Amino acid sequence: MPPRHLTDQEEATLRLSVTHHGTLSDRATVVLMRHTGLRASEICQLRWHDVTLGQTGGSLWLAGPGPRRRTVPLDPAAHEAIRVCRPVLPEPSAHLFSSPRQGTVLSVRALSHLIRKYARLVDLDLGLHDLRHRFGYVMAEQVPLHRLAQLIRHASLDTTALYLRASTDLPKENEKIAWR
């Protein structure tokens, strides 16, 4: 069964909710999740030294499994969200996002609560992983399947192919590639 597909309207509604009711840090968190496809644990573990900001774009350096690292590009929306909220985020030696209650590293549970809070304010029923799925669906229309698998760190193209609306139209050459 394919992952839940967040609609354009639902995404816009969530964005308005966090913009009107949230902090700059909350907005940056939601935008970064939607525009990078990072897993919740990856968002929570981001540190300032993992972020490179240029004039209009940038990248994130993430630990892979083991000693491997990967680069995740920042599109203009993600770049702008980080740039705008940078003055209110923790010191550069710290994690990008912290828990508003404890001031410690943002946990996956706290991140889930944050997303659900803004979704409930506008009567949306969505969870933490729905933003990652939204990224997958949007990018599936823009990049080749193997590149999407790299971006969202899927081990198999079969998993990534769930984001394609018409998976039966997959070219044969893409079906045999697997990423580790």
Task: List its traits.
180 residues, three-stranded antiparallel β-sheet, 9 helices, mainly alpha, disordered C terminus
In short:
It contains nine helices and three strands, in the order αααβββαααααα. The chain has 180 residues and is mostly helical.
How is the topology of this model organized?
Blueprint: H1 8-21, H2 24-36, H3 40-45, E1 51-53, E2 58-63, E3 69-74, H4 76-85, H5 108-121, H6 129-140, H7 145-152, H8 157-160, H9 172-175
Antiparallel strand pairs: 1-2, 2-3
Structure description:
With 180 residues, the protein is mostly helical. It is built from 9 helices and 3 strands, in the order H-H-H-E-E-E-H-H-H-H-H-H. The protein has a 3-stranded antiparallel sheet. The protein is globular and about 40 Å long. Mean pLDDT is 83; it is low at 166-180.
